[in-house]
Amino acid sequence: HPEPDLPAPRRTTREWQAADAAHFLHPFTDHQALASRGVRVITRGEGIYVWDSEGHRILDAMSGLWCVNVGYGQPALVEAAARQMTQLPYYNAFFQTTTPVAVALAEKLAALAPEGFQHVFFTNSGSEANDTNLRLVRRYWDLLGQPERRVVISRENAYHGSTLAAASLGGMPDMHAQGGLPIPGIVHVGQPHQWAHRDGAARGLDADAFGRLAAQWLEDKILALGPKTVAAFIAEPVQGAGGVIVPPASYWPEVQRICDRYDILLISDEVICGFGRTGRWWGCETVGSRPDLMTFAKGVTSGYVPLGGVMVGERVARVLIERGGEFEHGFTYSGHPVACAVALANLALIEELDLVRRVREDTGPWLAERLATLRDHPLVGDVQSCGLMAAVQLAREPRTGAAFDPAHAVGMACRRHCFDGGLVMRAVGDRMIVAPPLVITRAEIDEMVGLVRQALDRTLEEARAAGWV
Ligand code: PMP
């Protein structure tokens, strides 16, 4: 097993863990718990696999954090970064300057985006892009002389990032509880999550009826607030971090109708769904919405370097440009040349490998078919997928949908068994999710689903031994 030969000295796993616990505050982590367990040290990646410092090979069914879409170890991206760093590692886009590589990426993104998108605002992350969205929509309505349109509607259980504005746009109660969020002017409605509502609003409804009901929650909220106070609605086409929640087919057309009816801007957060994950370049194309703004990050560079941004539709861009004045917003690294060079190489590779079509016509349907074979497992209550993102819902009694006692943390137990079996899968409560690199093959999907079944079997054994079932 090759040790990393990069800047850090060679150390044993225990030494890395001790140094990590001493100095590294991790994102979304209980540090006391982490220090007592010891962190897993990942040293290398190739294709859909990563290796840890103990030499274990792990199938990365989460593409890092939903981002390594072209897989690990793609030389074209590395070479693009090295070339750009040699020629011009940095220059800014403030003060009447630009760089050819940032212009080329903006042009490329405009060509890939649905009709009506000609402009892009670059950021470093999805969170910053959603902060940008909040400022953009308020600026837009101010310029149109309707400053009273300030409220942005989002959804419960949504994830839109971790800055103050992005965490406020998100609908995660635990995040809101820390730091007094959401900030004013952001409200939330329910999600089209049929499984979660099975004992309540969704009881007795088929998928279509439930989808229309969930869209109605948006209209009800708009009417309660007063349509002239609402600036925008933000949502992911398919909710990712909340648990890969694939909405009923009736949901998005209704949402679009409602946004149109009240003249409300639609923001499609494409941070996970963008760049082929759902089998189209953009998730909005899969679900059939027509957003005014699109948030992107992650897949634009396959995570090799940080880059995010907002695709700004002409409805907003024209007002911003023609009614003018300075938009007082931006980042040192907006349009960072190295990030843009890597993005261009990444997008070229996605095209060369025909990954978007492959997800739509080959690997996406294959994943759905293979995951469906898990439906007979005594722990599986539901399976949902869209392209190469999928959820396996664990249930104590799959037939009735009865849930496990949350105190038993069955999802976390399953995630542990995944890791032990050489598979990275994520747990959102008792919902197990996958989003493998888009380069995954049918044979690798078979291997992945085999590992999922094995982890489910071990989880079932543990649940039986502990008396949870
Ligand atoms: N929006 C969505 C839909 C996301 O999934 C994420 C990250 N998981 C973000 C925004 C935030 O992106 P970042 O972590 O790059 O700030």
From TrEMBL:
GO molecular-function terms, A-Z: pyridoxal phosphate binding; transaminase activity
An annotated GO cellular component: cytosol
Top-rank taxon, per record: Bacteria
Database matches in Pfam families: Aminotran_3
Stretches that traverse the bilayer: none
InterPro entries for the chain: Aminotrans_3 (IPR005814), Aminotrans_3_PPA_site (IPR049704), PyrdxlP-dep_Trfase (IPR015424), PyrdxlP-dep_Trfase_major (IPR015421), PyrdxlP-dep_Trfase_small (IPR015422)
Protein keywords: Aminotransferase, Pyridoxal phosphate, Transferase
Gene3D superfamilies: Aspartate Aminotransferase, domain 1 (3.90.1150.10), Type I PLP-dependent aspartate aminotransferase-like (Major domain) (3.40.640.10)
UniProt cofactor(s): pyridoxal 5'-phosphate
Entry similarity comment: Belongs to the class-III pyridoxal-phosphate-dependent aminotransferase family.
Protein name: Aspartate aminotransferase family protein
Organism: Ramlibacter rhizophilus
